[in-house]
Amino acid sequence: MCAGRVMVTEKLLKGIVNFRNGDFETHRQLFEELKDNQKPHTLFITCSDSRIDPNMITGTLPGELFIVRNVANIVPPCRETSEYVSTTSAIEYAVQMLGVENIIVCGHSNCGGCSASLNAPEKLDQLPHTKKWLELMESVRERVLSEFAEDEPTVREWMMEQINVVEQLRHLMTYPYIYEKVMAKELMLSGWHYMIETGEVFIYDYRAGEFRLANGSRA
């Protein structure tokens, strides 16, 4: 095993020791309460990107968020299938079994999945499963490429990330049990765009049809 891997392993081992002696002890009562069941208030759907920490961003503790992560925070449209479906089953479980009150789809800046989707499909030939997964963003890709100029790559990436979040909110509404709960005001859907480099979170305003800064600096 190379020295770099040994250092990472040691860091992780030290981390679990520090957790047990530090954060766990601080929240011992909370973990005691969570040992037999969970009652999260929010289903948080976000990207697998290592730079995204849902609990840190939202200031929540264990037990509050039911978290689903995948490449580019995608929600497959509702469909009948006999395949093994991770994201779909997690959504079903969170809404039908756990009774979450909110679903947040959180995209982010510098999203590798969104960026890859904007490139020519053949660039992903060595990643066949990723390529197939990103087909779910094809309508978003087509819109961005047609509406935003090629000489503005930053704008294209920004809009790809934001429009993708809105598209996934639409996909959520194709699930009958989600549609019914939203219409009955028993469930709220929200779209976020998180900026890694600034800590800013923009939340989609349905009425205005745009993302608005929700946590601007108070300095």
Automatic annotation (TrEMBL):
<feature type="binding site">
    <location>
        <position position="111"/>
    </location>
    <ligand>
        <name>Zn(2+)</name>
    </ligand>
</feature>
<dbReference type="InterPro" id="IPR001765">
    <property type="entry name" value="Carbonic_anhydrase"/>
</dbReference>
<feature type="binding site">
    <location>
        <position position="49"/>
    </location>
    <ligand>
        <name>Zn(2+)</name>
    </ligand>
</feature>
<protein>
    <recommendedName>
        <fullName>Carbonic anhydrase</fullName>
        <ecNumber>4.2.1.1</ecNumber>
    </recommendedName>
</protein>
<dbReference type="GO" id="GO:0008270">
    <property type="term" value="F:zinc ion binding"/>
</dbReference>
<keyword id="KW-0479">Metal-binding</keyword>
<dbReference type="InterPro" id="IPR015892">
    <property type="entry name" value="Carbonic_anhydrase_CS"/>
</dbReference>
<comment type="similarity">
    <text>Belongs to the beta-class carbonic anhydrase family.</text>
</comment>
<dbReference type="InterPro" id="IPR045066">
    <property type="entry name" value="Beta_CA_cladeB"/>
</dbReference>
<dbReference type="GO" id="GO:0004089">
    <property type="term" value="F:carbonate dehydratase activity"/>
</dbReference>
<dbReference type="InterPro" id="IPR036874">
    <property type="entry name" value="Carbonic_anhydrase_sf"/>
</dbReference>
<feature type="binding site">
    <location>
        <position position="108"/>
    </location>
    <ligand>
        <name>Zn(2+)</name>
    </ligand>
</feature>
<dbReference type="Pfam" id="PF00484">
    <property type="entry name" value="Pro_CA"/>
</dbReference>
<keyword id="KW-0456">Lyase</keyword>
<dbReference type="GO" id="GO:0015976">
    <property type="term" value="P:carbon utilization"/>
</dbReference>
<comment type="function">
    <text>Reversible hydration of carbon dioxide.</text>
</comment>
<keyword id="KW-0862">Zinc</keyword>
<feature type="binding site">
    <location>
        <position position="47"/>
    </location>
    <ligand>
        <name>Zn(2+)</name>
    </ligand>
</feature>
